[in-house]
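Table S2 (continued). Query chain:
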Amino acid sequence: NPHILDSDGDGFDDGLEVLASNSNPTNPASRPIRGGLLDIIAYWDFNDASDPTATVDLVKGFRGDLKTGTLFSADATGRTLAAGDRALDMGATGNAGTGVIVEQGRFLGLAGAQDQIGISFWINMPDFQQSMAVYANSPAVERAFSSHAPWSNGQVYWDTGGCCDGGGQRANVAAGFIVSTWNHVVLNKNGDTKAI
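Corresponding output:
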C-alpha cells in the first residue's frame, strides 16, 4: 500500500526494506534485521581499485565516493599483505578532508530502528592525530554516530545520538594502539550500552 509507510508493521518502513535488505515489506515475519543476531548490512573491503574514485559495498552495492586525496593502496599492502589485499590511504595528516562519502546511507536506518549497530575496521596510522575514523549524519542528528579511533591522545571515542556527553552519548577507552601497524577496532551500540 503506497499510503502506509510500514505495510507489514514490523517497524521498518517499506522503502528501507526494499533498499537495504532482501526482506518482504508485506510480510511481518520477513524482517531485514533479526533482533539479537548479527546481520551484515554493508561491507567494503577496498580491494577493487578499478575505479579510483569509488568503492562499492559487497552486500547491496552501495557506492562510496573517495574524497580528494583518498587513494587505494598498492596491491598487497592491506592488513594481510597478501596479493589482492588493498586498503584506503587517507594520507598521513589528520583532518585533511580525506575519506569516503556514502550518499546512500539510508541503509543505516535499519540499525537505528533496532537501536543497535556494530562497526568493525582495521586502521594503520603513522601517529596519533586529531581525526575521525567514522562519521554519519542523519536528518535529525548531525552526529548520528562518530568515532575518533584514535584521537591524538590515544583514546578511542565512540559517540552516538550527538556528541560528547559522557553520560549518554559518548564512550571512550585508552586503546593501546601501536602506530605504524594494523590495529582492529570494533564499535558496538546496543540500546543505551556502548562498547569499544
